Every structure is written in structure tokens, then in C-alpha cells.
Amino acid sequence: MNWYPWLNAPYRQLIAQYQAGRGHHALLIHADEGNGDAALVYGLSRWLLCQHPQGEKSCGECHSCRLMLAGNHPDWHVLTPEKGKASLGIDRVRQVIDGLYTHAQQGGAKVIWLAQAEALTEAAANALLKTLEEPPEKTYFLLGCRTPSRLLPTLRSRCSYWHLQNPPPALSSQWIQRQQPADPQSVETALKLSHGAPLAAAALLQPERWQQRQQLCRQLSSQLTTHDLLALLPVLNHEDAAERLHWLCTLLLDAMKWQQGAAAYLLNQDQQPLVAALAATLGQSALQSLMQGWLTCRHQLLTVNAVNRELLLTEHLLAWEALLAAPDSAF
């Protein structure tokens, strides 16, 4: 697994806690998507499972390290939803928990990595609570999350909270430029659209993905002059519609900033003409109402099973057209 320079300091801090005997058996790691938290957890897991750690590093030579490098360590359990499912059910959780009360196959620690703690169903989370409260000896739970507020309070209370901050923009920009050279304005925009998470920004800057965003911006710019917003449907109606709506909402937010004279704080620094055009079409309250509608639409796409995506997008695009046609839309 790749390692990233901004993980060095948090890794050393976490290892120091375990070396001092203060490391918690249940660690809740809060990080933005694309921040490299999986690499941090993997490194920490290797150290916890290593039979002969060398200071803050795993030895890389013992049988346990070799099993981790091969990806088949029997005492490293990765809990993820089944393929095609968004939630993690109670059966899979119970299966792992039952195995924790047997002797570690390598005679050392046992580590459970749950990358998406929000994916736990309520039943699965409750099944995990007792084990988190009274875990077997030398058993460590590493839980990842994007939104801690979505977790059961009882689950959060049994964990030690750790916030993995995004690296400074300058460091992120340097790292991205080494991976895939791009113009500074595009890198800055990609980082802002990704909440400062370098891996997510690098993924957005991939040529095909960046072109999809550019296409949405061009199409929106064209349709603003005709008020035929329904023509945006083909560029929005894709499997990744939620992310495309994120791009759209950031443009609407930037338009409100533009109206307030805060152009220096735009997220979409490379789309200032489009942002200015959006700001000229509707007033502040109308833009805010429009953005709230799209945020609600995005939430439905992410949380409602079997939602009719095309119908939902069509409904909101027609609402946008109606808002532009309303006589009080300038307010």
C-alpha cells in the first residue's frame, strides 16, 4: 500500500501512544475521503501485529509482517459491506466477533479494520458495542468514519477519537504536481472541491474525470442563456450523479459569494465567468433556495434505495426553470 508524506506525523503520534501503554483498544479515525486514512490504518495495523517491531516501525521480516505484505494475515480482519450493498449487517459483524475469542493464529494481537463505521446497521452497531466495551486481550478495533455524527452515541463513547487533518494546501499541491503535473489553478480548484484531501483531488484531476466536470460547466453556461435547464439532464444523469451535483452546488455557492463581493474565496477558481453568469440570473435568496433543493436531491440519491434518479433530476431541473421564470427571482 502506498504511503503519503502527510501521514508521518500522525503515525508517529499514534505509535507513541501504544508504545507508552496509552493506546486505546478502539480508535475512531475521522478523516475526509481521499486523505489516505486507509494507509495510516494499514501501517498502524502492521506495527500492532508485528512480532519484532523496530521502534516505531514494523520489522518487515517476521512471519506476521510477511503475511500482512501478502495480504492474508489471519488475525487482521477487514469489515466491509458485501458487494452491491451500502450497509454492513449484523451477520458479518457477529462472524468476526466470534473469531476474536479464539487464540490469535499468530500468537500476537488481533486487529479489526472497519473503514466505514457509518455503514453499520443499528443492529450491527449494537452487536459490536459489548465487544468494544470488554474486548478480548490484545484485540484492537480501528474504525474509520467521514461523519461521526451519523454513528450511535454509544458507539462513539467507547472509542478514542482521532481526527486526521488534511495536509496544508502547499504540501498537497506539491505532492499532486509530482504525481501528475497540472496548472496551479486547476490543482487549487481540485483541492477546494475535494475539501483539501490530496488523493481525492488527484483523482478529480485525472483527464477523463476533469473533462466530465468541464463538460458540465460548459453545458450549464450554454443553458443559462436559453433557460433550458432540462438540457442538463444528460450530463447529470449518471451513476456518479451525487458527485456531479456536488460540483453544481459549489458553483451555486460561488455565485452567492460573487454577489457578496467575495470572489477571492471561490471554490471554482477556474470558472469565474460561469460563476458571474450564475450570480446575474437569480437573487441571493433564490440561489440559496435552489442550492438547498439540489442538496436535498443529492442526499436522496445517496440514501434512498431504488430511487428513480432520472425522474428526481428532471423534477429539480424543471423547478430551476420555473424559478428563473418567476417575476421575483431577482430577489
TrEMBL record:
* Species of provenance: Chimaeribacter arupi
Per UniProt, which keywords does this protein have? DNA replication, DNA-directed DNA polymerase, Nucleotidyltransferase, Transferase
Establish whether keyword Hydrolase is in the entry. Answer: no
Would you tell me the Gene Ontology cellular component terms? DNA polymerase III complex
Which SUPFAM superfamilies does the record associate with it?
P-loop containing nucleoside triphosphate hydrolases, post-AAA+ oligomerization domain-like
Q: Which Pfam families would you find in this protein's record?
A: DNA_pol3_delta2, DNApol3-delta_C, HolB_lid
Q: Where is the DNA polymerase III delta subunit C-terminal domain?
A: 208-321
Its BP terms in the Gene Ontology are: DNA-templated DNA replication
Alphabetically, the GO molecular function entries are: 3'-5' exonuclease activity; DNA binding; DNA-directed DNA polymerase activity
Q: What is this protein called?
A: DNA polymerase III subunit delta'
Looking at the record, the residues that make up the DNA polymerase III subunit delta' AAA+ ATPase lid domain are 170-206
Enzyme Commission code: 2.7.7.7
List the InterPro entries. DNA_pol3_clamp-load_cplx_C, DNA_pol_HolB, DNA_pol_III_delta_C, DNA_Rep/Repair_Clamp_Loader, HolB_lid-gammaproteobact, P-loop_NTPase
* Keyword Transmembrane helix recorded: no
Reaction equations catalysed: DNA(n) + a 2'-deoxyribonucleoside 5'-triphosphate = DNA(n+1) + diphosphate
Instruction: Write down the top EC class of this protein.
Output: transferase
